[in-house]
Every structure is written in structure tokens, then in C-alpha cells.
Amino acid sequence: MRRVKIFSGSSHTSLVDAICERLGTQPAKCELKKFSNGETSVSIETSIRDQDVFIVQSGSDKINDTLMELLIMIAACKGGSAKSITGFFGTPVDNLHAEPLIARWIRNHVSGWKEAVVVSKNPGGSKRVTSLADALKLNFGIITTDRRRATMTGSSILDMSGYLDRMGDATFDVNHLQRSETEAEASIDPTADFEIPKETIRQSPHANGLVNGHPPGTAASCRKVAGSSPFSQARGVDAEPPRRRRTPIPRSAPSDEPVAEEDSADEYTDERAREVITGRLVQGHLVDDDHLSPILSTMSGSVATLPGEIVGPPHFDDQDPMASSFMSHLSTVTSHNTIGGGNAAAEFDDEEEGFKNPELEHTITLVGNVKERTVFIVDDLIDQCGSWIAAAETVVKRGGAKKVYCIATHGLFGYNSLEQMEECECIDFIVVTNTYPISHDRIRASRKLVILDISNLVSEAIRRNHYGESISQLFQHYQD
Description:
Strand order of the largest sheet: 9-8-10-7-6-11-12-13-14
Shape: globular
Low-confidence stretches: 150-161, 166-172, 198-208, 218-255, 259-269, 297-344
Strand content: 15-25%
Distance between the termini: 29 Å
Mean pLDDT: 74
């Protein structure tokens, strides 16, 4: 192509060579080096005046140097009077994504993919998973992990009190409450009978002989009571009783069959309830239900000596699920001073570190039916492997899946994660693109790794950008 220059950063030169080969050109000449003190030097060795410049720079294990090199290259091209500069790095300017490429590979290389299920290993990836599931017209599922709590310790009680205090600081709209009370009063049928249970009548704070600041029986004391709803009248003993006895109108005629049996039958015939599966994770791996909990084995003696009404029962299986979920939420409430409420990458790192801690136990929940089906676990990248292995073990050992594909756009494979996923018997294939450089030794040693070539997508995006054609058509899903 004329009047186009494609520059390569130092992170992934092989990808740039493949892109230029498809476009019938060569990478533009530039010199990249570092000074003795570690500073980055960029020298553009060709004319780029009034040219469309494209810079391809992927991530690397030295991400700070890679990003700084890209920024310096952009500044150098601006100084060379380039017509336009487009950089491809992590999240490209034209918002390229590999979903159509992955969907096409699934259709052509996975047998029985029409009966498969797309699963997100965390709630944050649900939008990505549903998009791929819609493109393939498949069902989808979701996996969540929560840190498990055995007991309510003294420290957790203090945390809960502080949390409730913060909740108490919230302000309420008094006018909205008054409007709701007026609407509720207007919706009551005055001709119907209504009986106020005696158990709901509580001692009024004005039981000292004064009603609304005035003696009972006076006009001032009855002014507010007469204008209030029956709900407010039932809260105090000094309020006047209703003039008529009212009984609630039954919703439907009573049937001959017991209600308890109907509820029981509905409970066991609900198919949706069968698609929710839970399991226990210790050190990132699924364990049996009778496995000793590390939480109980590491409880301190000071907590064990607290009164029973504070510590609670020794086993968490008898606790209310809502209370356990609330206590788990309290333990993870943190203050974020940054704009946006925190760093998602840091939260994922904390989750991975929690999987490695032998003193912690997690509860993993799978929502979706994967029995005797192929499962596609999808995320944007694979860096650490703890959540991937936990999700694969859950869908296979608890869900009954027959084959698992771990699919991501970027394969970083840090901390020997590729080797650990190779050893996991529940993972059959690991599918990534070549947006991130992977050493040839690791590729040859892997039996499960499948790498999809992204050079065709990037080269076509460069061509369309140069000639002013639509790029959105690259993201359309076409049946092969």
C-alpha cells in the first residue's frame, strides 16, 4: 500500500512481520535501543511526512518499558509530520476484539459445539460471555467464588457495627414516605373488615399521658391521629381503635389438597434450582464435603473462649445463607480513594492469592446446566491460573461436563500458569491468540495449547483504515 508506514515495537516483532506479509509490504525502519542508564531511545529512519503511520506494540513481561517505548515512538512520529498515527497496544484505537475469530474457530474445530455451554468464571466477565453465547446461539452459565466464614467472631461484630453505623448515616426522603402513606391509606377499602392482631401493638413512646404533646382526648391530640393511616394507628396504644373490625379478603378459594404438599411438589419440580451447584475450595482446588475446614482448624484460642452467643455454632453449615453472605460482604468492604472505586486487577490478584492461602476456604457456585456437555470457559486474558483451574474442576467434578476449553484473547501465562493448567486433568484445551509473545520452548512443551493467529484481523483493519472503509464489518459474525 502506498503512503502507509507500519512500525514495530520491540515486544512482538513476529506478529508485525506476519501483518506486513499479508499487506505485501515491509516494516518501516526504525532504531530502538536503550542508553547505559536504561532510558529508551527511538530513531525513525525513514520519511513519514504526510503518511498514515501504524505502530504495533503488544504487552510483554516488562510492561512499563514497552508502554514507554510506544509513547516515545508516537512522539517521534508526530515530530516527523505524519498525517495520522494509529497505535495497536492492548486496547487498540479501533477497538479490535477477537470474538468473531474465536467463534469461527469453535464452529470449525469443536465437534458438537451446538450443544456446548459458555461459562464465565467470575461475574465481571458475564457481558463478554453472553456476547459470545449470543453469537453462537448457546446457553451460558456463571461461576462465583466467595470466601467462606465459619463463625461470627468479635472482630467481625465490630466490623458489622461500623458498617451499620455507616448505613445509618443515610438520609431519607420524608415527603416520599408521607406520599406512600397517603397512597396506602387511599387504597384501603373502608367497607372491608380488618382485624388488627394484638401482637403487632407495641408500647408507644408517648405512653406518659401525652399524645402529640397534648393531653389525651383534646382536639390537638386527635388532630394528627385522625389524619394518619391505620398502619400508624396500630403502632401506639394511645391511638384510637378503628371504627370497624376488618378481616383480610382471601386471595382464592381454599382447595381440598394441603398447601404444604403443593409447595413441596413445586420445590422439587423446579428445574432452575437443579442448575445451581456449590462446592468447597481449599488452596484453589475442589474438595469433598467431609474435608476438614482450614477455618476450623486454625481458629485461635481467644476466639474459642468467647461466649457461645457471640461466637455462634462451631460449624458453618447450620448458619443462615443470607447471614453468611452478609458477613462475607462485610469482611471485604474496603474504602477506595481512587476515581472509579478501585482497581479490578488488584482484586483479581487478591483472589488468586486467597486461593494459595492454606488457611482460607472458598465457596464456589455454578449456575447453569453443563452435564454431559462441552464447556467453554471464557475470559479476556490468562495470567494466573487459580480461578481457571477452580472453574474447570467445578464444571467437571460437580457439574458433570465432558470436555473443557479455556479460551482467552491474551495468553500472558505468568507464574508458570501454563504448566499448571497443563497438569490439570479437568482442562482439555487452552485457546489464546498471538497478541502476546509466548516463547517457542513453552509452545513446544504444551500439548493443550492452541494459538489463533490475529495478524489477518489487524492487517485488514489497517487496510480499511487507510482507505476509509468501515471497520465494524470485521466484527460481524458470518456462518462459514
